[in-house]
Amino acid sequence: MTLTMKTMEQKLQKAGRKHSRLYLFCNFTALMIISAYSALMCSETVQTVFPSGGDSRKQMYFIFAMTLAGCIVFTIYAVGLFFRHKSAQLGILMALGASRKRLLPGLFREVLFLSGTSAAAGILAGFPFVWLIWSLFRLVLVDSSEMELVLDYRCLFLSLAFFLLVVGLACLTAWRYLKKTNIMEVIREEHINEPVKELGRWCGPLGLLLIFAGGVMGYCAPFIWEKLFSAYAPSWASLLYAPMFVGLYMMMLYTVVYGWGKHKKNPYKKIISRGMMKFQARQTVNNLLVVTLLMAGGCFAMFYLPASGTSAVLGYVNYSHDYFYQYPVDQAVPGEDAVKELAGEYGLSTKDWGGCDYIMLGIGGTAEMADEGGRYHVEYLPVLGEARFLSEDGFHALTGEYVDVAPGTYFGINNREESNIYLNEGAQDLTNMVTGKQIPTQFAGCLHYDLMSDSSGYYVLDRGDYELLEEGLTDSWRGRILQFNVEGKDSYPFAREFYLRFLHSFDESCEYHREYDRVAKMRAEEAGETYWMDTESGDGFRVSYEEWESMIFQSGWKYQPKFRIMLLNDYLCMMGVLYMMFLFIFIVCLTTSLVVCYTRCQTIAMNNRYIFDDLKKLGASPAFLAGEVKSQCGSVFGVPGVVGMSVMYVLFAMILYANDGRITDYEAAALLICLALVLLIGLGIGAVYRRTAVGIMRQLGIGLAEGIR
Amino acid sequence: MLYVKDLHKSYEVGKVRYEVLKGVDFHVAQGEFVAVMGPSGSGKTTLLNCISCYIPFDSGSITVGGSKLAGQSEDNLARIRNTKLGFVFQDFMLLDGLTIRENILIPRIIQGEVKPDGEELADKLTDLFGIGHILNKYPAEISGGEKQRAAVARSLINNPMILLADEPTGNLDSKSSRAVIETFIEARNKMSATVFMVTHDSFAASFCDRVILLKDGMIYRQLEKTGNQGEFQDQLLEVIREMSELEVSL
Q1: Among A340, A550, A695, B76, which one is most buried in terms of CB atoms within 10 A?
Q2: Is A650 on the interface with B (CB under 8 A)?
């Protein structure tokens, strides 16, 4: 075969397959992760279910940004690693007289091929990956009509942008190497250390302090700002979280340079592994930081499931009645007789029937009126919104609890946990919205009944006040509540059939979200404005009888009944898309973290092979060498895992606490589940660490028998 | 052939500037075998790297075969490296993915297609240096001495004006070192090659026609071989001892 530059380059590429494979693997993984995440994030499935402007959507975008940042840092690292190994080859050719022009076509051909194919393959694999995971979710965990995956191919823009970034980075790095004038530097690049500027032993403790301070400052800033300036905190207030990132960097730096073990007694312990890490500290610290953020992001997503699921499911279990429903009296909803007859058809009998009427009134309260520039002032409005009121007799009929409400006062109904923070405790006026009759009132406290605790709120009035305000109300402002239990074991088919009959008995006047407030609408119209729920902002709150199985309907319809057996059976189904998306995010973050850790550990083997060989020559035992490998791999896998998960766990507990200024029993249960999950994830990471360490020991030819014990 | 005049080179590490070459002057004639010796940090390798156009120098001039290196474009410097200079490194710098024959032919490959005369010369050189039997082997399959002899053959494949060697025996045992030095002598004798070698090894240097001794970035002394190799080595060792004593007394 005639020897040309091209054939020589091909042979050299073949010889460098090992490094190319690692580069391909890194790019492929990063692109696959980003494509899969963006495909699911932009999918119609997710976009329809995640409330626009809601916290869950923000959370999803926030973690995507973190994953994207992680993948960018990772691909920069991968291309750097590839060129570190490629540089010796380039340097020798330069030293022998190959000019930049001579090397450029072959080098660009190679990097374009490697980065282009790996990135394109990653994008292509992203779609089957997301489809596979989603199908697996549907097959094993939850399936519903909402779970049908409908991709929006606009997500390709994100993938393509990342593709260009990867290819651009590869070309830029290639150009940077070719531009170097010091050929010896190019030749020796692979062996050049990357020490990082040491900050001293204080950087570890200070890092911890900054993480804590950043967390507290970022967390408290919005509250303090509101108190001080009567204005919503500006978006830059989130920057107060920034010290956390600086702190994380310092912690990782400390981990790499000094290590966290006690070295006073034995200062030479792990000195070799620390030395190896220290001299590649720049990339190691970057990698550890990225993994920490990804682990934290993954946990943030994962914690969502137990946090919302535990309180919901425990709440359903503790309901006093199997069936609870309410409706406006102008709707022909199945009553006690019709339900008993239907239950009979399913071989069931019912018991503990209870019920009462309620009225819907205008309730006064304080509203935050936005001024210009994000400031607001608090103003009391005599007719703020709509609320449901029972008489003290009605409350007794439902709960069996006698309560004496003083005239001119009202009670709010909360759950036993008192976790409903939406109750209006500042009303001074109650208004009959038909006659305009208004009476003064004041909040007297909370009564407890789990079934009647929701964000719309139920309140209890004195019998006299109730009768006074009821007078002249039309049927659309009156409602009825019914509840009952089933004798023995309940039947899901019965519950479902009852639900469908209940649903179909409503006319279109009731086809609205529970946030839809007729009183607020009247107020807006009186002011010559369009009620916000009738504008684009209310699009995320539209419900339709036709889509009664959707999450938005099941969780938001104004007259959604509470049938325990359906709630327990269908909860996962109803929340399917939301939960599965967060589960997916967790999988993506964890996978990316593990890939970064694995790659970092691989470079330990590649870069330090000669050190291990020298140690062997100096008489180091396999057990000693294995200890050095495990020490480094342990730091790479362990420290970001522990820090990322711990920080997120604490932050999550703080968020739960911030909801109502305490941790409820349900939240405590959720935190315990989260802790168990953290331990499980830790075990998983441990298993990957073990396999990686064993693989590296094999690559370095370290006797495994001693090594893996 | 090679003229070095008032050569200055310094490095900056952080804010500190280290002057490594402080005005070095010498020349090497056609067909001469010259070594540069000196203690660590004396500037030997830096001097060689400047002549090799691997690193830029601060001031002074280097002329190789009539071409001044200062002010040349990157492309011209590459051409000079490829056609006028041949290189031998301490750690051989053979490319793992290529056979020994292909490694030897790299400078020709860089020029374009390898023509039959290139292959013939490769065969001739390998026969001359006693490595004809390893032509189709890969670097990982041969000994250090064989690798270095292959590297010498590579350095000569383009008939360079001067062969530059950086510690060519540094990684070899005495037997292999001698074999490599003999390749230089063969190249000089049979191909009229000019050799400029940096070394720590007084035994290797004693085969040269002339030895330039560097100290603290300046030429301390130049010694020409007048007697046989053994006497020249003794002479070298004496001057090196003198340099060390001077170092201690300072």
Answers
A1: A550
A2: no
